Queue: 3 jobs
Job 1
Amino acid sequence: MPTGLLPVYESPKAFQDACEKARRDGHSVGFVPTMGALHAGHLALVAEARRRCSFVAVSIFVNPTQFGPGEDLARYPRTFERDLEGCARAGAACVFAPDAASMYPPGESTRVRVEGLTDSLCGPVRPGHFEGVATIVAKLFALAGPCVALFGRKDFQQLRVIERMARDLFFPVQVVGFPTVREPDGLAMSSRNAYLSPEDRRGAAQIPLALSHAVRAFQAGERSVARLVEPTRARIARISSSIDYVTVADPVSLVPLADHGTAGDRALLAIAARVGAARLIDNVVLGEDPAPCPQEEA
Ligand code: AMP
C-alpha cells in the first residue's frame, strides 16, 4: 500500500517481493526491525543501514509473542504516522507493517529457541521473551532475504541472541550491532521512556550515571566484580522500585561472573530495573564503551 511518504506493505508476500525486486534491480538491502514508537535511536539505525545499503526496509510490528502475561503489550506506545515520517526522513525505502494475524496465521506453530545465551540477564526474568524475539526475527529475516540487519546494542542480549540465531539457521543476513543512542543526560533512548512521569524521568538519569561511574572505575583499574556491581546497584536502588539485575557478564557468552570474581579486559555490565511504570534496561561493555555521561554531575 503506497502512502504519500513511502510504500507501506502489510502483507508478508508483498514485503518479500519488494525486497526481492530491490535486489534484482541491483540494490543492497538493509533491514531495521522495530516495534514502532520510533525515536532518534531507531532512526540512527535506519541512517546507518542507509549508509551501508542502497535500499532500506524498516519493519514496524509490536510482536505479541515476546510479551509475557502482565507485560505492556496492550499499552505499548503506537505512533504510526509519525514513525512513517521519521523513516522517510532517515532514508528508508519502504516500511513493512503487518498485523498479528498475518505473522501468526491460524495453525502456525513454529518457535525458535536459542539456548545458553538466554539463561542469564533478562532470560529468567522474562520467560518466553527471547523465544518470541527469535521467532519473529526469523520470520522477518525469511521475508527480507539476503540483507544487512541493524540491531541496537541497548538490547545487548537480544543482539547476541539474533547473531547466534542467524548463524545457526544459515540466514543470509549480516547482523550488525549499533551503539546505544542516548538523551543529553545519558539515559538510553527507549520507547518505554514514554511511561516515565517527569519525576521518574529525572530519577532515571541515575542509571547512565551509575554505569558511567563503573566505566571510570574500570578505566582506573578496578576488576573486582563486587566492587563494580555494588556501587552501581546502590545508585540505581535510590530511584528504582525493584531491580531485576545488576550483572557483570562475559560479553560473548553472557555468562555472569561471580561476585567474588574478577573481570577480564572486556566485561558486560548490564542492568534491568523498574522506574515508576517503566522497566528500563541499559548496559556498557567495560573496556570498550565510553561512559554514557561524559560530564558527571554526581
Ligand atoms: P524496539 O522497537 O525497541 O524493538 O527496537 C528496535 C531496534 O532499535 C532494536 O534493535 C533496538 O535495540 C534498537 N534500539 C532501541 N533503542 C535504541 C537506542 N537507544 N539506541 C540504539 N538502538 C536502539
Note: Residues 129-144 form the longest helix (16 residues).
Job 2
Amino acid sequence: MVARLVAAGHQAFIVGGCIRDTLLGHPSKDFDVATSATPEEVKQLFRRARIVGRRFRIVHVHVGRELVEVTTFRASHAASPHATAPPHSSEQARRSQRGMLLRDNVFGSLEEDAERRDFTINAIYYDPERDELLDFVGGLEDIASRTLRIIGDPATRFREDPVRMLRAARFIAKLDFALDPATAAPLAQLHALLREIPPARLFDEVLKLLMTGRALATYEALSRHHLFQHLFPDTAAAIHADSRWDAFVRQALINTDLRIKNDQRVTPAFLFAALLWPAVAVAEARHPSAGPQELALQQSAADVLTRAMRHIAIPRRFSAPAREIWELQPRLERRSGRRAWQLLEHPRFRAAYDFVLLREQSGEDLGGLGEWWTRFQAAGEDEREQMAAAVKGPAPPRRRRSRRRKPESGPA
Ligand code: ATP
Ligand code: MG
C-alpha cells in the first residue's frame, strides 16, 4: 500500500489512530495513510479506490478485507506559505465567521500535515520503508506521559472544528489520558459551538463516543466539559432536575461497556432509547392526565425524537425501534390472558425486556416485572399458563398520575 505510493514517486506514511494505539499496546482496527499524492493520483494507483468526502476529500482504498483511508498532506491555514491549491481549482481553506473550517482541501507539506491534525498523539507518522517514526509535534512525549494535547492554539483549533471537543472527550476516556490543562481551558467557553455541527456528523460522532467500550468514562468526560448537554439537551435537563436519571444513564452505559467487553451485540437503537428515556419519562409525566397512558407515551416519544433530531440525525432504522422499546414498556406490565405469549413474539421483545431490566437495575421499582419475564421465558408451557393466570386480569385503565408521586419523579 505505502510501498506502491512510494514506488510511484510519492511520500507516504501510516499515521493517526493505528500508530497511536499500537504505541500504547491497544489493538487497532483501521489504517490511515497520509501521502503527498493527490486524491486523483491515489485513485489511479489502486483498483478498489474511491474518492469520498466534501469537507475533506479522502480516498477509501480497499486492501483485502481492510479499508484504508488515504489523505493528501494538507496545510491548516490558507495563508500557509507552502500551501498549494489542488490543480483543478482555486480552492482555499474556507472558514465561517466564527472561524469554523468549512472546507479543508489545501494541500501542503508533511510538516504542515502534522500541524493541521488534532492532537499531538494523532500526528505521529510511521515510515514502513525505513521502519522509522516521525514526530513533529511532541506526540511521542505525550504518549509517554499519557497527555492529550491539542496541536497549536487550543481555542483556535476548537473553533476551526468544534467536533475536536468531542474527540478530546473520546480519547481521554478511551485511552485513560489526562487532558492537558491548556487544551481543556477553552472548553468552558466554547462548548456551545457544538450546536453548529450538522446533525448527521454528530450522529456519527455519538456512535463513536458510545460504542467503543468506554461509554461510561466518555459520558463522564462529556459531562465534565459541558458537552453532553449539547448532544442530549432534554436528557441533560432531566438529569439536572433529578439525579436518579444520571444513575439510569450511567447504568445503561455500564451495561453497554460490559456487552462490548463480552463480545455481545450493542445496537444504537437501544442506546438511543436509553439516552432519551429520561426525556420521554419527564415529558410523559407532564402530559395532561386525561386519556390512556399509551397515548401520552406515544406523544411524548414523538416529541422527544423530533427535538432530539435537531441535534443528532438519528436514522429511522434506529429511531423506529427505539420508539418500539419505549412503547413496549407499559405493555410488558399488562401480561394477563394470552398477552404474554403475543409479546414474546414481538420483534422488539428482547430489547424491551432488557430495557425493563435496565430500569430496575438503576433503582426503579417495577414490582418484580423483570424477574417475572425472566421466569416466563425459561418456563415450560404449564408453568407459563400458571404464571399468566396468576397475573391479575386486565387492570382497569389506571389514572397515570397515581403511579407517580411527583409529576417529574425519576426512575426510582
Ligand atoms: P480512531 O480511528 O480510533 O477513532 P483516529 O485518531 O484514527 O481514531 P480518525 O477519525 O480515523 O481518528 O482520523 C484519523 C486521523 O486524522 C486522526 O488521528 C487525526 O490525525 C486526523 N483527524 C481526524 N479528525 C480530525 C479533526 N477533526 N481535526 C484534525 N485532525 C483530524
Ligand atoms: Mg482512524
Note: The pocket of adenosine-5'-triphosphate (ligand 1) is lined by residues 16-17, 30, 32, 117-118, 122-123, 161, 163-164, 208 (CB under 6 Å).
Job 3
Amino acid sequence: MKMNIDGETRHLFAVWMENGVVRLIDQRKLPEKIEIFDAKNSDDIAYSIKDMLVRGAPAIGVTAAYGLAMAKINGEDMDEAVRKIRSTRPTAYDLFKAIDFMKENGFLEAAARRYSNEISSRCKKIGEYGNELIGNDSRILTHCNAGALAVVDWGTAIAPMRIAHDSGKKLFVYVDETRPRLQGARLTAWELAQEGIDHAIIADNAAGHYMKAGKVDLVIVGADRITASGDFANKIGTYEKAVLAKENGIPFYVAAPGSTFDFSLSGGQDIPIEERSPDEVLYIEGKRLGPEQSTALNPAFDVTPFRYVSGFITEYGIFRPEDLPKLRRSMEKDLFMKATPQDAK
Ligand code: MRU
C-alpha cells in the first residue's frame, strides 16, 4: 500500500519477514503513527494477533504463516507453536487455512512467502473483478477495514476502490466508524487518505440515513468466514448494513479470497463468534464511558444470511450465493486452495 512517510511516498506491507523476524505495522497506533512491531517468537505472534496489532482475516493468516516459519527457524516446539497461534482468534477462517498450509509445507519460510504472495495477488484480482461493479461517480459504503492493512497489500473490499480510483473513476466512500475498535475511522479512512480517495467517516448508526436518502449506490464489505450457503461472518454491524441495503434496493457485495471460504460449514449458525473484552466497549483511550456499575457485551462479529448478498467478489470472479457450488469446484481445482483445515471451530 502507498504510504506517506515523512513526506516521501513509500510502498509498505502490513506484515513481512526479514532476517528471521516477523515485522508488522502496529495497527493499534494508526493513524497517529506508523510503528513497526518485531515479533521474535510464537508468543509474540500470538500476542500480535490476539491484541490486534495485526487484524483482518487474510493478514491474520499471513502473520500465522510467517510466525510458524519463524518458530521452526527458532527451533521451537512446533505443536506448541501451532496450539498458541491457533487459539488466538476463532472466527477468521484464514488463520486455520494458513496453519494447515504451513503444516503441509513443513513450516518452511519459502512456503510462508508463497502464502503471503498468493494472498496479495489474489486480492489484486478481487480488485480487478470488483472494479467492474463500480461506475464513474459511485458512492460506496464500507464497514470495518478490509483494506491493505487487513490483507498484506491491496485489501479485499477496498481493492476494487483502489483500482477504480487508479483507472480515473471518481468515487466517494462512506466509511463506517466501526465501534468499538474504530477500524473504519482509524484504518480505512487512513488508507483512503493515503491513496487520495474521496471519503467521509460516518457514525455507525448514520448508514441508514444516507441509504434512504438515495445517496449510496453500492455496499462492499470483507468477510471473516463464508459458509457453503453464503451466510458469512464479518465485523459486528455488518448484518444491519446488509438489511438496510436490501430494504433500500442497494447492491450489497462481499469481497474475499478463497482462503476465507469454509465449505465444511453448511450455514452461519455454525460459525464461532469471538467475544472480546467488555473494556473495548466501556473505554475509549482509557476513559470510561458508562457508569462504574455497568458492564458491556462485545461480540466481535455478526453473521449475515446469504439472502442479503448480491454477490461474492473473489479471485475466481463474482458469484451469487446460489452459484457458490461453482466457486467450490474452481477452488477444488486450485492446488493452493484445495486443502481444507481439519478443526477450524
Ligand atoms: O476484528 P478485525 O479487525 O480483525 O475484523 C476485521 C473484519 O471484520 C474484516 O472485514 C475482515 O477480516 C475482512 S479483512 C480483508
Note: The first strand starts at residue 2 and ends at 5.
